[in-house]
Amino acid sequence: MRADEVIIAPVLSEKSNTAREGECKKYTFKVSTRANKFDVESAVAELFKVSVTKCNIMIVKGKPKFSRGKGGAIKGNTGNWKKAVVTLAKGDSIQAIEGV
User: Which of 21, 29, 45, 83 has CA atoms 20 to 30 A from the CA of 3?
Assistant: First the structure.
């Protein structure tokens, strides 16, 4: 897999923003469901020119959704997706996400 196929988007939530603060910065990404830890580590290192020390991957379950329309109620779920938390070496940061 190419590096731009592995990483889909950064996850910018309150919890991920607090993880970025501190000495060892942790960045959270939405990644391809076919990617593994080694793919994510190499993709982050290649795309952002940083050194990765650790990578944790988890599958996030989809949430139930419910909507009402003309035809009645529609029940369904959002899709499952894969999340990666990447820890960088001390002093490294990703400028594209930091906004600096």
Answer: 21
